[in-house]
Automatic annotation (TrEMBL), chain A:
Residues 8-102 form the B12-binding N-terminal domain. Coiled coil: none annotated. Pfam families: B12-binding (PF02310), B12-binding_2 (PF02607). CDD domains: corrinoid_protein_B12-BD (cd02070). Keywords: Cobalt, Metal-binding, Methyltransferase, Transferase. It comes from Roseinatronobacter ekhonensis. The lineage of its organism: Bacteria, Pseudomonadati, Pseudomonadota, Alphaproteobacteria, Rhodobacterales. Belongs to the methylamine corrinoid protein family. SUPFAM superfamilies: Cobalamin (vitamin B12)-binding domain, Methionine synthase domain. GO terms for biological process: homocysteine metabolic process; methylation; tetrahydrofolate metabolic process. GO terms for molecular function: cobalamin binding; metal ion binding; methionine synthase activity. GO terms for cellular component: cytosol. This is Methionine synthase.
UniProtKB/TrEMBL annotation, chain B:
Keywords: Metal-binding, Methyltransferase, Transferase, Zinc. The keyword Ribonucleoprotein does not apply. It is an enzyme of class 2 (transferase). Its EC number is 2.1.1.13. Its cofactor is Zn(2+). The keyword Methyltransferase applies. Pfam families: S-methyl_trans (PF02574). NCBIfam families: PRK07534.1 (NF005718). This is Methionine synthase. The gene is metH_3. Residues 3-293 form the Hcy-binding domain.
């Protein structure tokens, strides 16, 4: 690619730069993303606009191509890493400027299950989409979920399981929430290799998410619906 | 070459491998979340029963209960100091059952993934992966395993690390990967790419192939992908007994023994030499598979349509091995890499 002209990010117009950032996210180029974020800040963009119009928009493309079997885990990890570079610059500024939140998610692998690659991917993609994510790690009992929900007051509870033997524990958590009258406080999303939609319905989750990209789309849709319902009431 | 598996392969067109380990152990009372490998020390009779289940159903080869027996996985149960012991015991029990069977049965020392993502994407270095696999391999060797059996791998880096570990232990080995994401491994490797990767290894496996993944049909498509590369190495097919379903609080795999019998015969017609099951495959399935392989004549190589008609459809339209066509997903255009 030596014949390719060097791209000078600072010379690009806003529109061109945003397009370029989407490409660079796709290619997982962290330093380029960090540079572009700084350029847009210097040009007077609000942190929230940079987040939503460039980074989240770019990660949405990554998510779609992951969902469609065009990109795979290694590329998504690289893209998420580039996104993280941009987010590290934006995060303190977002707090300062009181930007609106996308939503908050508490996520963890259920009791008895020690697998976390899928859950980590979901956490990274959710952060990439602008959500605040609290990761509880692996092997979580229902008490741990309840405590974390109480403390963090998230919009979404995400549960993951890789084993057919630990999947049913998701129902224990959901049933416990229902018994305590807390079920409707949260959007409950479930995922993991052996699960399917039928299972999600059977245990009373709001949705089963086939992969991290679907998790992000579903979270956006359900959070928006929840906000609309609250506004309507 | 004087290893037992090579000798057995030389005398037979196909070998029947075993089925599920986890599904069987859970039926014997293993609690979810517990490390199955601890039973090699604590419940040896149950592990003998597990092995005998496969041998009595006609398996020519079975895997030891050591899938999660590497330091990275055992650490989650604070048993990382027991890698050698638990693998040795798992293989010793296997040796005992195989030698008492009255026929030649291969003890394959199971080695599963570390569960870590390898560098540069993740934190596990090549050197550390080799060291962990080597430690496990030595335990299996000490217990009398005939061959090491690396399975359910998704990253080529991890597969290569296992190959190196087998060489360090001076052991013959076999290695399968799990193709569960749009016909590829989680890391995006296609069946064809795996065959090419295996071909370039310094310490080559005796056989390679696919296990687990998504259902039996997908697994056969993967086998066809291997065969199309023109590889001369024996191919392994170890597919799940259908898809897991949730019924009354329990998980059932929906593949019947009849379906797995069809799958076994189709796998042979596709070109697989070592045929077995994975999750959900119980002794009843294995018996049906053995009977089908012994009584049904070999047929022509099936095409994808035949597989679909006989044992069900695929989880994705393509698997990355096809020539570019209308169904081929394309990467985002106008890519660029900046000079740096």
């Amino acid at each position: 690619m030596s014949d390719e002209e060097e791209i000078i990010l600072a010379d690009l117009s806003d529109d061109e730069l945003v397009e370029q950032m989407m490409d660079d996210l796709y290619d997982g180029l962290r330093e380029e993303i960090e540079e572009s974020v700084r350029i847009l800040l210097d040009r007077g963009w609000t942190p929230y606009d940079i987040l939503t119009k460039a980074l989240v928009a770019g990660m949405t493309i990554v998510g779609h191509d992951f969902r469609d079997g065009i990109l795979f885990v290694p590329e998504v990890l690289l893209a998420a890493n580039a996104m993280k570079g941009g987010m590290a610059i934006l995060k303190p500024l977002l707090v300062e400027t009181g930007a609106p939140r996308m939503g908050k998610m508490v996520i963890g692998t259920v009791k008895g299950d020690i697998h976390d690659i899928g859950k980590n991917l979901v956490a990274m993609m959710m952060e990439g989409a602008g959500f605040e994510v609290v990761d509880m790690g692996i092997n979580n009992a229902v008490e741990a979920y309840l405590e974390m929900l109480e403390r963090e007051q998230p919009d979404i509870l995400g549960m993951s399981a890789l084993l057919t033997t630990t999947m049913p524990y998701m129902k224990v958590v959901i049933d416990t929430l229902a018994a305590k009258g807390l079920r409707d406080e949260y959007i409950v999303l479930v995922g993991g290799a052996p699960l399917n939609e039928e299972f999600g319905r059977a245990i009373g989750a709001d949705a089963y998410c086939r992969d991290a990209a679907v998790a992000v789309e579903t979270a956006k849709t359900l959070v928006a619906r929840k906000h609309n319902q609250m506004a309507a009431n | 070459m004087t290893d037992a598996l090579t000798e057995l392969l030389a005398t037979r067109d196909w070998l029947l491998a075993d089925g599920a380990t986890g599904t069987n152990l859970f039926n014997m009372g293993l609690q979810s979340g517990d490390a199955p490998e601890l039973w090699n020390a604590d419940e040896p009779e149950k592990i003998r029963t597990l092995y005998r289940g496969a041998v009595d159903a006609g398996s020519d080869l079975f895997l030891t209960n050591t899938f999660g027996g590497n330091a990275s996985r055992l650490k989650l149960h604070s048993a990382e100091a027991r890698v050698h012991e638990l693998n040795r015991l798992g293989a010793e029990l296997g040796r005992e059952v195989a030698d008492a069977s009255g026929r030649r049965v291969i003890v394959a020392g199971s080695i599963g993934p570390t569960g870590e993502i390898m560098a540069p994407m993740g934190s596990l270095t090549h050197a550390l992966a080799v060291e962990m696999f080597h430690e496990q391999a030595e335990g299996l060797k000490a217990g009398g395993a005939d061959v090491l059996w690396v399975e359910t791998i998704s990253a080529s880096e991890e597969y290569k690390a296992a190959a190196e570990a087998a060489a360090l232990a001076g052991m013959p080995w076999c290695g399968t990967m799990s193709f569960d994401t749009a016909g590829r491994t989680m890391m995006g490797l296609t069946s064809a790419a795996m065959a090419q990767m295996v071909d370039k290894l310094a310490h080559k496996p005796l056989a390679f192939g696919a296990n687990c993944g998504v259902g039996a049909s997908d697994l056969l498509r993967t086998v066809l992908g291997f065969v199309d590369t023109g590889t001369s190495m024996p191919i392994i097919a170890k597919g799940n007994a259908g898809i897991p379903k949730y019924v009354d609080g329990h998980i059932h795999y929906d593949g019947t023994p009849d379906l797995m019998a069809d799958y076994a015969v189709l796998a042979r017609d596709c070109g697989a030499r070592i045929i077995g099951g994975c999750c959900g495959t119980m002794p009843d399935h294995l018996r049906a598979m053995r009977e089908a392989l012994e009584t049904r004549a070999a047929g022509p190589r099936p095409d994808l349509e035949t597989i679909k008609t006989r044992i069900g459809g695929f989880s994705s339209a393509v698997d990355g091995t096809e020539a570019d066509g209308p169904d081929t997903p394309a990467r985002r255009g106008n890519r660029r890499r900046r000079e740096s």
